[in-house]
Fold this sequence. Notes:
Elements: H1 8-11, E1 14-18, H2 22-32, H3 36-50, E2 63-67, H4 70-82, E3 89-93, H5 102-112, E4 117-122, H6 129-136, E5 142-146, H7 151-195, H8 200-209, E6 214-218, E7 224-227, H9 229-235, H10 239-242, H11 247-250, H12 256-269, E8 271-280, E9 286-298, E10 301-310, H13 312-358, H14 364-389, E11 398-401, H15 402-417, E12 421-426, E13 433-436, H16 438-454, E14 460-473, E15 483-494
Parallel strand pairs: 1-2, 1-3, 3-4, 4-5, 12-14
Antiparallel strand pairs: 6-7, 6-10, 8-9, 9-10, 11-13, 14-15
Helix pairs in contact: 4-5, 7-8, 7-13, 13-14, 14-16, 15-16
Amino acid sequence: MNVMSDPLLDSNQRILIVDDNPAIHADFRKILCPATEERAALQDLKAAIFESELDRPKETQFQLDSAFQGREALEKVKQALAKNQPYAVTFLDVRMPPGWDGIETATHLWEACPDLQIVICTAYSDYSWDEMRTRLHKPDSLVILKKPFDNVEVQQLAHAMTRKWQLTKHSELKHAELEHMVAKRTRQLREANQSLGISEERFSKAFHGSPIPSAIQSLTDQSFVDVNQRFLDVVGCARNEMIGRTPAELFLWENPAMADGWIEQIMREKQVREDEARIRRKDGTFNEVLVTCSVLALGKEPHMLLLAQDVTERVLLERQLRQAQKMEAVGQLAAGVAHDFNNILTVIQGHCGIMEQSIPPESLAKQSLAAISKSTNRAASLIQQLLMFSRKQVMQFKTLDINATMAGTIKMLERLVGEQIKIKFTPADSPLAMKADASMIEQVVMNLAVNARDAMPKGGSIEISTSLETIHRAAIPLDPEKRDGDFICLTFSDNGEG
Length: 498
């Protein structure tokens, strides 16, 4: 059973669109399945005109199917599962008269395919978020998309939700593989023990050759009688450091009470199955393990066979998945707030422009309107940063002076780090032009400022400078691109710890 043997984990881009309006299906196909042949022809034409080869970005090829009612959608999901071609994501309309609405359809779809990621599309407040969560019981696999939707928002949701499906399946299959391996090795040891009448020679070969970290403890004093090489690798000790000593003497378990509990459970139930624990390595670090214990008779004394399957990698993968889900929710919230606030600013800017045209230039009200217009423009810039954070703002590359960009960012950084930290900016003597996205540069500098602030809890200073540096360096293995010419250098330093 090999997790990586299933190509579906890395390539499932199958999406089901469920809506009673055929025009909505056409919109999704325009957004997620653009005419790649026309793009390719245009690229070929450009290459012929400029007599050069153009780099063509690799695009994700989404596979879209359509259903116009809930029952039809359920049937397509079942057919896809029967063919081992499940859908990763469903964009589902709330209102689909007659028949099931979107909420009832989602319930049936999850009964058939629990791993399906669902995006509810709605232009009305049919249900509140609390009502949806109460009725569906799966908020982690649900996203709300308001109509009319933005093209970029739909594309990013399709990418994020298909990737989330792949990560979830990978984690589930990895867990199943580990459980299968532990059960298989435990069964092999038991069968060998029973069939060979506890033959020490044969059992020793199975024990020491097992890929599962294994140890044998005496139930009388809990000392280690034997350990295999994989167990030694996990704890980072030599054999002579463990044999004859107890876990307590080696400070082996993060929670020693758990080890005592295993002994009690072994005496009572004869086994312990896949108990999560943290085992301390010799260097002080910890590994996540699943502990399985069973009674083993060696000679006349009872012993315990302990299997400690290392699942550190799986736990890390699960944490990354949970973090991705949290960041997805934060980004969704930021995007929603930014869009609503941007609509308010548009009204203010529009009325301000109308009033500026009707007021004489020498009027005091003209100056007030100019101040209002300037403030709304600054607020719009903050909205762009929020959209950039939520990954719903397309990057806009343009020629800019990094000195001017940094000068406009300093005040925002001062508010960010607080009064106890002083910021000194030293720009280069002449303008430094570069082609970049100003919001991305501001985001980088903000991240550096936050890191510096965290390193100076009692206050300090941050120094930022720009300069023009000339570099002559050939390609190296870690960076195969040649570096030769003038480069802009942004220097960021602080006097904090670390």
